## 1
Amino acid sequence: MDGPEPQGETGHLGGGSGLDLLRAMVAGEILPPPAMALFGIELVSVRDGGATLRRKPGDYLYNPMGPVHGSAVAALFDLALGSAIQSALPAGRTYTTLDTRISYLRPVTAASGTLTVTAQAVDLWERRAAAEAQLTDADGQVCATATMTGTVVERPPEGSPEKPNRTWDVSDWLKIS
């Protein structure tokens, strides 16, 4: 097989739990969200109620004052916290973000090395979920922490659109229908 197979309603996207979906992404059976490719973020591992993601910061992400722009860190947190929540949800359920709070503790630069976010779902209710995460640099220093609250909803019956049998490319975002 050359790449991830598209999944219909009976595949990973339609019938499995959130953990099943994320495990299929880690295994390369289905593609992760295109935002991960756009931002250069890798889904490293998932477990029930948790996820670990990483990315290497580059100077192309710097803000006018020098360090990596906070939005690059926020995107990493958003995907990690959301993955932690999704991994704890049963089949047929997903979430939508209500609130994300980030505390930036030290600047991140290209010299920080690979950034790793470890996220864990901390509370799951019928209609709400919460998760927390830490971002560490290559030396293991905590650079930022974050929390997320989400609303738990039914997964739409059509599921996610079928994934092409190729990797996502930034040029996909630039195509006009």
## 2
Amino acid sequence: MALMITDECINCDVCEPECPNGAISPGEEIYVIDPGLCTECVGHYNEPQCQQVCPVDCIPLDPERKESREELMAKYQLITAA
């Protein structure tokens, strides 16, 4: 699954630089995650780095975007091959 940022986001700016795929960016009101770039840090780290640094715990799994670990690894390989 890709991750998502909920309305509880306080725009603290700590998640964006932690994303190894550049999937996090400022949205109109809160930060947003591009599901096409989010691999939950598979291929880079054991755990999603944005979740680790978020002070308000507002980055859950996106239930609309279910992906297996294998699918996330394949996405990671496509992203890093470019």
